[in-house]
């Protein structure tokens, strides 16, 4: 039986190999039907599905569910599991007896692919802890740590559209994998492409496939219970919260976790139960425009104070506040600052010295926590984007004697405590409710608390978005121009101004350049696998500053930008950010030249 053909193989060779290898009747028929049609459109579709092969990276796999070497399906799941299993057996001590933790969400194929993964590991002599039923993503890293497993796999596509699915991998330290494991696993997949097992019949009869689901849930909720602050008590007139789980798996987890807090939590019934079709939200991401409309509408009807939201696998969190003048939808950066301040105050009030406290955020997140750390005397640590870096950075500082109770990224991901070094939407819901109710007893709200933080640490405002770019060569051309912007013989030669502000520093994590670190000019952060440049600029007359990070997306054909302004006068910043965006698009990105799409 053939394995994966060479990358240079013709379309016919790729199709023939697929039809000979795939044993799933549905995906085989998809490819056969496209090949039989033979028209131009069908061949283009086959080209998209057949190459390049789906690539395993630090995010594992994520793609559309359909036949083809470039997609996620039974065959690529089996191949990935075979390679991952061999790599873990070679790299992790006592991997066979320590085993793997496997969970899945409610998406189409998720349960089957969790079982296929389990069958592959069992076939290679490894113990398997396979969660029964639907779980939220944080329960997998929790289980890896609690069971001292060799690795973990969660089958989920998080907040992607309904046709996508994914394969997220956790290492033995219960954090998402980083280099060099991603490359090592990818190489192992290539070395073990021939599928050896297609049946899942023996998964539930194997003595090596253990059901620890209820034990892990019990232990998880016990640890979540530790997040309840000693001084917490509900007010005489407790707040009302509306909660949406975005048609995902989070509802039973959030409901149980919030039960001890004495507040009213009303679910959005249309989005309460798992539904892989996501009928009310085509993009089930709380950050998307319109995603929270149903929840806000229900909150208005029942006079609720806040909306809580988790994405479908319940590892991300978002929130809104309803008040007399309307609705405040908090950004990920605003929630990050709110949670960080709350974590600092809790730590300080416990009597511990601030000098032992550290917090972590991704480099594209707000610099407000950095300003907070400078004023309050704790350590702020920056890392690359993604919780694989945030979690590993937290573990590293913890091993060096620091207390790291909080970390976040602007994409509504928040990490609390020490038991799960990953984002957790349930934990974030618990912390938000506690803070909101505590403030309510004082006659305040989350929004007024944020305004207090602005007065103490300065006003910060984010404006993040992206440009859609389908051609990788255009992306390379745009970034090459930014690195030789003024047509000078001096290298590097980045832009020196934007929107009238002088650029004060440049950190290029693609080429390895940091203007703030002479004489080596080497950045303190590791290099990025894609293009990534961060500019800081300042208006010297009034001290207004911006931070602008431009990076390629690891999963989508986009150039993303993360823009933040900070200073004393919010009106100045509010006027400045659109000017920066205009110059960024028209000049730096050359939108009209390359016909870039900007939402």
TrEMBL record:
One MF term in the entry's GO annotations: phosphopentomutase activity
PANTHER family xref list: PHOSPHOGLUCOMUTASE 2B-RELATED, PHOSPHOMANNOMUTASE 45A
Magnesium found in the keyword field: yes
UniProt keyword terms in alphabetical order: Carbohydrate metabolism, Cytoplasm, Glucose metabolism, Isomerase, Magnesium, Metal-binding, Phosphoprotein
Family, as annotated: Belongs to the phosphohexose mutase family.
Lineage, uppermost ranks: Eukaryota, Fungi, Dikarya, Basidiomycota, Agaricomycotina
InterPro entries reported for this sequence: A-D-PHexomutase_a/b/a-I, A-D-PHexomutase_a/b/a-I/II/III, A-D-PHexomutase_a/b/a-II, A-D-PHexomutase_a/b/a-III, A-D-PHexomutase_C_sf, A-D-PHexomutase_CS
Pfam families: PGM_PMM_I, PGM_PMM_II, PGM_PMM_III
PROSITE patterns to which the protein is assigned, alphabetical: PGM_PMM
Domain Alpha-D-phosphohexomutase alpha/beta/alpha: 54-191, 237-320, 331-457
Cofactor section: Mg(2+)
Protein name: Phosphoglucomutase
GO CC annotation terms, alphabetical: cytoplasm; nucleus
Annotated signal sequence range: none
Any Gene Ontology biological process: purine ribonucleoside salvage
Subcellular location: Cytoplasm
């Amino acid at each position: 039986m053939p394995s994966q053909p060479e990358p240079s193989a013709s379309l016919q060779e790729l199709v023939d190999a697929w039809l000979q290898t795939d044993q799933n009747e549905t995906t085989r028929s998809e490819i056969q039907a496209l090949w039989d049609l033979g028209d131009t459109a069908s061949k283009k579709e086959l080209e998209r599905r057949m190459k390049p092969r789906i690539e395993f990276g630090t995010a594992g796999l994520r793609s559309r569910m359909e036949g083809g070497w470039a997609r996620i399906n039974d065959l690529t799941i089996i191949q990935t599991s075979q390679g991952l299993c061999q790599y873990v057996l070679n790299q992790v001590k006592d991997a066979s007896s320590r085993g793997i933790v496997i969970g899945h969400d409610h998406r189409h194929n998720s349960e089957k692919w969790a079982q296929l993964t389990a069958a592959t590991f069992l076939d290679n002599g490894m113990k398997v802890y396979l969660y029964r039923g639907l779980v939220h993503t944080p329960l997998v890293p929790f289980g890896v740590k609690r069971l001292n497993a060799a690795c973990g796999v969660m089958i989920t596509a998080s907040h992607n559209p309904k046709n996508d699915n994914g394969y997220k991998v956790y290492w033995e330290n219960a954090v998402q994998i980083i280099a060099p494991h991603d490359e090592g696993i990818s190489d192992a997949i290539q070395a073990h492409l021939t599928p050896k097992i297609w049946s899942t019949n023996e998964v539930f009869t194997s003595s090596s496939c253990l059901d620890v689901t209820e034990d892990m849930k019990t232990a998880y909720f016990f640890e979540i219970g530790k997040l309840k602050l000693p001084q917490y008590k509900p007010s005489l007139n407790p707040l009302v919260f509306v909660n949406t789980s975005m048609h995902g798996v989070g509802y039973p987890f959030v409901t149980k976790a919030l039960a001890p807090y004495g507040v009213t939590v009303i679910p959005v019934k249309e989005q309460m139960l798992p539904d892989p079709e996501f009928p009310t939200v085509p993009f089930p991401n709380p950050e998307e425009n319109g995603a929270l409309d149903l929840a806000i509408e229900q909150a208005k009807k029942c006079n609720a104070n806040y909306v809580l939201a988790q994405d479908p696998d319940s590892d991300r969190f978002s929130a809104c506040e309803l008040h007399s003048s309307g609705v405040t939808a908090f950004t990920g950066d605003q929630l990050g600052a709110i949670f960080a301040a709350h974590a600092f105050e809790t730590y300080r009030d416990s009597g511990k010295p601030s000098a032992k406290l550290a917090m972590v955020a991704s480099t594209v997140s707000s610099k407000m926590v950095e300003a907070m750390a400078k004023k309050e005397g704790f350590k702020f640590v920056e890392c690359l984007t993604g919780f694989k870096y945030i979690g590993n950075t937290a573990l590293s500082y913890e091993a060096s004697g620091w207390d790291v109770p909080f970390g976040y990224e602007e994409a509504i991901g928040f990490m609390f405590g020490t038991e799960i070094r990953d984002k957790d939407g349930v934990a974030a819901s618990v912390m938000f409710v506690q803070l909101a109710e505590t403030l309510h007893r004082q006659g305040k709200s989350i929004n007024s608390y944020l305004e207090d933080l602005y007065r103490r640490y300065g006003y910060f405002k984010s404006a993040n978005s992206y440009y859609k770019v389908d051609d990788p060569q255009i992306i390379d051309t745009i970034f090459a121009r930014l690195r030789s912007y003024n047509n000078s013989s001096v290298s590097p030669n980045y832009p020196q101004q934007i929107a009238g502000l002088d650029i004060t520093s440049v950190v290029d994590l693609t080429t390895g350049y940091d203007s703030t670190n002479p004489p080596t000019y080497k950045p303190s952060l590791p290099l990025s696998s894609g293009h990534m440049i961060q500019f800081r600029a300042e208006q010297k007359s009034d001290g207004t500053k911006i931070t602008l990070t431009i990076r390629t997306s690891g999963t989508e054909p986009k150039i993303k930008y993360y823009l933040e302004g900070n200073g004393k006068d919010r009106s100045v910043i509010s006027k400045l950010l659109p000017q920066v965006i205009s110059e960024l698009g028209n000049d730096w990105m050359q939108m009209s030249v390359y016909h870039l799409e900007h939402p």
